[in-house]
Structures are given as C-alpha cells and as structure tokens.
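#help-structures
NK: newbie question, is this the right format to request a structure? protein is Probable enoyl-CoA hydratase, mitochondrial
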Amino acid sequence: AKSYEFVKVEQRGRVGIVTLYRPKALNALCSPLMKDLNEALQAFDKDEGVGAMIVTGSEKAFAAGADIKEMKDLEFVSNYKNNFLGDWTGINSIRKPIIAAVNGFALGGGCEVAMMCDTIYAGDTARFGQPEIKLGTIPGAGGSQRLTSLIGKAKAMDLILTGDMITAQEALASGLVARVFPAKDLLEESIKRATVIANMSLPSVLMAKEAINKSLELGLTEGLHLERRLFQATFGTKDQKEGMAAFTEKRAPNFKHE
Ligand code: CO8
C-alpha cells in the first residue's frame, strides 16, 4: 500500500482504516492532510478486498479543525478564485460506508469531516463543536447543513452561535453519534462493527448507503421511488439468492459481493 505523510493506512480483514496523523497540531486539517485523506479513501474504495472503512484520529484529537495558521491571512478574492474548501469534498464521492471513530476533539472542520462520514462512533471522552464563530468566521465544510439535519435547528443554532463543545454523551443523545464506547476500546469496537458491514453483500451495502444519503436531498416521492428501484435491483444479485437461501436452509449466508 502507498504511504502518506499525514495519514496512516492499515487493513484489517475487509476493513480499511485511515488514521489522521499530524500529532504536532492535533490533526489540524491542512490541505496536504485533506489530500492524503481523500487519496487513501479513494484507494480503499477501489480495492475489491475492502467492504467498509474507518476514519479515526488520535486519543487526544480526531481533528481540531481546519489549520488556523494556514488560513489566517487568506482573502475573499483568492478564496473565491481558488474555490477554498471546494475541493475538500472528496469524502462525499466515496461509495463504500465510512465510520468516523472519534476520540478527543472533533472541532470545526474536524467535526465536519466526521459528519461527512456515514456514521460516527465516539469514545466517551470525545468533544464535538463548531467553534468557528469564536474566530470570526462560520463553518465552511457542511457544518451548518449537516449538523442541522443531524441534531435539528435549535441545537445546531445553540452550538454554532456559541461555539460551545458538547460531550460524547450529549452527542449521542442528540443524534450526532450512533454509539459511544470507552475511549480505549473505540477502535476495536469500530473495527468489529465495520467487519459486520464489510461481510454483508457489498452491492446491497452500496445501495443502502445511496438510498439513505439521497433521503437527505430528495422529496419523499422521489426518495421512495429510488428506494423501490434499488430494492428491486438487489434481486439481480447472486447475494440476494444466497441470503434468502441461507435463511430458508437455517444457515449463515456466505456473500460473494456479486
Ligand atoms: N489549526 C492549527 N493549529 C492547531 C489547531 C488548528 N485548528 N488546533 C490546535 N492546533 C495546534 C496548536 O496551535 C498547538 O500548536 P503549538 O504547540 O505549536 O502551539 C497544538 O496544536 C496543540 O494545541 P493546544 O496547545 O491548543 O492544545 P490544548 O489541549 O491546550 O487545546 C483545543 C486543545 C481546545 C482543541 C485548542 O487547540 C483549540 O481550541 N484549537 C482550535 C479549535 C478550532 O477553533 N477549530 C476550528 C478551526 S476553523 C475551521 O475548522 C473552519 C472549518 C473549515 C472547513 C474545514 C474543511 C474540512
């Protein structure tokens, strides 16, 4: 596998793990780090042997946001001409599921990267926030949009307008994260669940992810139409035959991802 400066990659069975690695700056998301992250995820997305991915950071920080030192002297016209942050959306085009496993700080762009993933599991010491307002700016990579759809308007306003952090337990209660584990167990527990997903039929997994993500963008009629069409399409896979045969024969299915 290729090696990168700002992320570490590892494969456990059918699970691809990308660890953000910029310890000197609490994994602050400089442009080269985002480039490495996107490349590493794209490589796993293409890899036939991988069925699900995890993005994680260190025990102290998932990521403490965009790199403030890199950003501080930027100007509107150059931001606009260079489409600043416009190319940080690579995660959105990954088709396989990605779990963000968050320990420590997930702030600003760090919280946004976690929300770009398909679900978030947190260690019990994790802290989430969108502190951009304290720097005289606002979220720029989906914070105002994704956080609002995940936790609702009142809570999103409260967090984004004050810049306050919330704990893992608060994030769980508000629907930002799906599960909380003791911090030291977070990665192993995330790998276990990613393995469950990675052993399901990959075509079904891709279709389920696509259908869920489209629910955030389509009206109900179009969303139900897409879901029904994808559901019908699963009957064209060998894995659907295997899954239903295994149930009938009272045995575990052996999906071949085709
Ligand atoms: N950018 C650059 N460097 C950082 C950042 C950052 N966001 N966060 C921490 N660092 C650096 C510190 O400067 C420090 O470096 P040095 O040792 O050279 O001084 C080192 O990391 C360790 O940090 P601290 O000493 O501050 O550690 P503490 O444990 O005292 O505090 C905190 C931890 C509370 C996380 C604190 O570091 C902090 O508040 N960080 C900034 C958090 C923040 O405001 N983040 C939002 C940034 S704005 C943003 O993300 C805009 C979104 C744009 C979209 C991004 C696209 C994905």
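mod (FA): yep, format's fine, and the tokens are attached above. DSSP finds eleven helices and ten strands in the chain.
NK: thank you!
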